[in-house]
Specification:
single chain, alpha+beta, HIT family, subunit A, 3 helices, 5 strands, 25% helix, binds adenosine monophosphate, binds zinc ion
Length: 113
């Protein structure tokens, strides 16, 4: 599963990505099809398919803390931003390696579609 997983392959540098930040546990790169001026994906380096399979609270928490730091370095922290984890079919999850979307740089409506 991790062999062919797109985001595991980005972690292993087998597929190019615009990586902007990483530490021992997590990796952040720009979404290939951005939905906002800033659209970054923050992922755990270890494969977890979705939030349904997540049991490591610290690993999940790290994604949010990393996103907040990236929001600051991207210059969107003050105006605001949105962090989203899509889980499963109804939410439109298309890549089954857990990822947190960091979106900002424009006004966003609520509720999401
Ligand atoms: P989701 O729909 O929540 O599963 O989000 C998957 C996201 O991954 C989408 O926003 C895609 O644009 C993005 N994506 C797919 N392939 C790549 C890639 N090779 N590099 C960066 N982002 C990607
Ligand atoms: Zn994976």
């Amino acid at each position: 599963m991790t062999e062919s997983c797109l985001f595991c392959r980005i972690v292993r540098r087998e597929i190019p990505a615009a990586i902007i930040w990483e530490d021992e546990h997590s990796l952040a790169f720009r979404d290939i099809d951005p939905k906002a001026p800033t659209h970054v994906l923050v992922i755990p380096k270890s494969h977890v398919a979705s939030l349904n399979d997540a049991d490591d609270a610290l690993a999940i928490g790290r994604l949010s803390v990393a996103a907040a730091g990236i929001a600051t370095s991207e210059g969107i922290a003050e105006r605001g931003y949105r962090t989203v984890i899509n889980t499963g079919r109804d939410a439109g999850q298309t890549v089954f390696h857990l990822h947190l979307h960091l979106l900002g740089g424009r006004h966003m409506s609520w509720p999401p579609g």
